[in-house]
Specification:
By secondary structure, this protein is an alpha/beta fold. The chain has helices spanning about 5-10, 20-30, 45-55, 70-80, 95-100, 115-135, 165-175, 185-190, 200-210, and strands at about 15, 35-40, 60, 85-90, 110, 135-140, 145, 150-155, 160, 180, 215-220, 225. α3 (about 45-55) packs parallel to α4 (about 70-80). The longest helix has 18 residues, at about 115-135.
Length: about 230
C-alpha cells in the first residue's frame, strides 16, 4: 500500500460488528494499524445505533450475530445510505448464498478465517470508493477545516496558505487529534531523510502558529505537539 493511501486511511474510522470476541479483537487490532479508529460492537442492534451516532467512514460486519444479523443491519443502512463502503464477513462459502447479498452493494465479502491480505485488499477497495465519492475532510475547532485530498486548510470561507512542511506538520497533528505527536514522528513524517534541527522545528512551529488562534497548537516540553482539545 503506497504512502498516500496509508495517510488517507489514517483519517478514517471503521465500525466493526462481530459477536465472537476473539476474532473481533484480533481483526480490530490489525485494522487499527491502518486506520484512525475502530469502533467495536458485538451485535447488529448496537452496530446500527452507533452507525447513526458516529457516522463511520467504513463498515465491517459479520453475518451471523445476535439480536440483528449482518444482512438485516446492511439492509437498514442501505435504505438511506448507498455510499458508505461495507465489507461483509462470513463463514459461508455457498455461492448461491453469497449471490443473495450482492443486492446490498458491498465492496467485498471475506470468507473466514480472515487473513491480513484480505483486510488490506478490502481497505484499498473501500478507500477507492471514498476517494471517488468525496474528499477526506476533517472538521476542527473554531470553524477550521482541512481537506486531505486537496491539501487545503480553510477557516469559514477563508483559505489559509501552508507551506509543504507546514502541511506535513499539521496533517500529523490532525491525524493524532487526541494524542501527542512526538518529535520522532515529526522527524520521520515532516523531515524524512533531512535532519530536524531544534531551530528548524521552532521556526516551523512559530510560522504555523501565526495562522491559528493562540494556544491552538500546544507544546508538551520534551515530548512533542498536539492540537488543544479544550479549544471550542
Amino acid at each position: 500500500m503506497d504512502k498516500i493511501a496509508l495517510e488517507k486511511l489514517k483519517t478514517l474510522t471503521i465500525l466493526y460488528a462481530e459477536d465472537e470476541e476473539g476474532i473481533r479483537k484480533k481483526v480490530s487490532d490489525s485494522l487499527r494499524y491502518y486506520v484512525k479508529d475502530v469502533i467495536e460492537v458485538n451485535n447488529g442492534e448496537i452496530a446500527l445505533k452507533l452507525y447513526l451516532e458516529k457516522k463511520p467512514d467504513i463498515i465491517f460486519t459479520d453475518i451471523m450475530m445476535p439480536k440483528m444479523d449482518g444482512i438485516e443491519l446492511v439492509k437498514k443502512i442501505r435504505k438511506s445510505d448507498k455510499s458508505t463502503p461495507i465489507v461483509m464477513i462470513t463463514a459461508h462459502t455457498d455461492k448461491e448464498y453469497l449471490l443473495s447479498v450482492v443486492e446490498l452493494h458491498l465492496e467485498q465479502y471475506i470468507i473466514k478465517p480472515i487473513n491480513l491480505r484480505d483486510l488490506k485488499d478490502s481497505l484499498k477497495k473501500c478507500l477507492y470508493v471514498i476517494s471517488n465519492n468525496r474528499s477526506i475532510t476533517r472538521l476542527l475547532p473554531q470553524e477550521y477545516r482541512y481537506d486531505f485530498d486537496s491539501k487545503i486548510l480553510t477557516c469559514g470561507v477563508k483559505e489559509i496558505k501552508l507551506t509543504k512542511k507546514e502541511i506535513a506538520f499539521f496533517e500529523l497533528l490532525v491525524q493524532n487529534r487526541y494524542k501527542v505527536t512526538t518529535y520522532a514522528q515529526l522527524q520521520e513524517y515532516v523531515w524524512g531523510n533531512e535532519l530536524m534541527s531544534d531551530d528548524a522545528l521552532k521556526s516551523l512551529v512559530r510560522n504555523i502558529r501565526q495562522k491559528f488562534p493562540k494556544n491552538y497548537i500546544k507544546n508538551l516540553s520534551g515530548v512533542g505537539y498536539k492540537l488543544d482539545d479544550k479549544i471550542s
